[in-house]
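Provenance

Sequences were taken from public entries as deposited. Structures were produced by running a predictor on each sequence independently, with no templates supplied. The record for ABC transporter substrate-binding protein from Halomonas alkalicola is shown for reference.
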Amino acid sequence: MKKSILSMAIAASALSMAGAAQAEVKVGFLGGFTGGIESLTPPIYEGARLAVQQINEQGGILGGQTLVMPSGDTTCGDASAASNAADRMVNTENVTAIVGALCTGATIAAANNAGIPGGVVMVSPASTAPAVSELDDNDLVFRTVPSDAFQGEMLAKLVLDRGIDYVAVTYVNNDYGRGLSEAFTEAFEAGGGEVAENLAHEDNRADYRSELGSLSATGADTLVVLAYADTSGQTVLRQAYEAGTFTQYVGADGMVGDSLVEAIGADVLEGMIATRPGSPDLPGTELFNEAAEAAGIDPSAVFAAQAYDAAFLVALAIEQNGSAEREGLSAALRSVSSAPGEIILPGEWEKAVELIAAGTEINYEGASGSHEFDEDGDVPGVVVEMVVEDGRFVSKGFVEP
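Predicted structure for ABC transporter substrate-binding protein:
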């Protein structure tokens, strides 16, 4: 009898240990795996997954639990798809937090319809439109990328610095396109330039020749396209080239993908200029670059570093919060991302866990910035000049304010 009881106790203990070892903490990822940025999304997702991998390799989260990252496709442009994907994360997967979404409209739809009602912290590494700052979000929506209010200003400065003061603009008719167009136009005209025409266009159409006819009628040689590399932006550029009416092309972060150059032709886009949020020269930047290259990820891929930071920050906040519960996570996120505190760099998970356990304040200094969130959940940032050379987008350094 005693042996039987002992065997049962050992079996129960083994089951308990197995359950603890297999316990999971879920952080969801929402991205545009199909649609307007489908070629840009994979390295962004891999950037976030790199943080998850490092955390699990260094002992896991909350006393050895495994951090997992289920994903959902927002399609970038479909608000219903974004809402449905977010609903699955919040109410079926029961995630503690979400990295994403990427496109601004997707983030707003996901937040309003699932994230905010469910009390789930969302950290977007790519939603740049000013509209994100205006969400009534109960301090639940953050981003590790600067607002387009800043990128639009820097793009305008870059164009003016190139001696271009007369342009035609077309933008995708959504929160991203409108916000970026407004910021660019205001700064460009304040700097002495003239926007000859500024036309919205709908995404996912096969023909933009009517809009291009109006834009070319202005006599502008430079066409600014504020759209997506895999949908309308690509079609607009192809049809503009076929019409032969512009000699210089300009874009922003949604257009910065080598898939765009491959689709249109390296000779056609040679010399195209664009901007994208970048990573300042911080110690964490080099650490991320080394880890990403070792993992087979292009560290310079658009928003990959921002996605890594979003995932690492969320994990730090969960550890700081002491549980996988959603309540209190927003305050914990602000705590681990802000001074004062002992500096934590990318990959320093074990160090962070030890400090948190000891009750020591920490301050994460990331791969793409310091991420001192303001009251709207926004961060300052830097913008990088990109130029198409020899068939690919090449970084030319920071655009200085």
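The first strand starts at residue 24 and ends at 31.
Confidence is low (pLDDT under 50) at residues 1-21.
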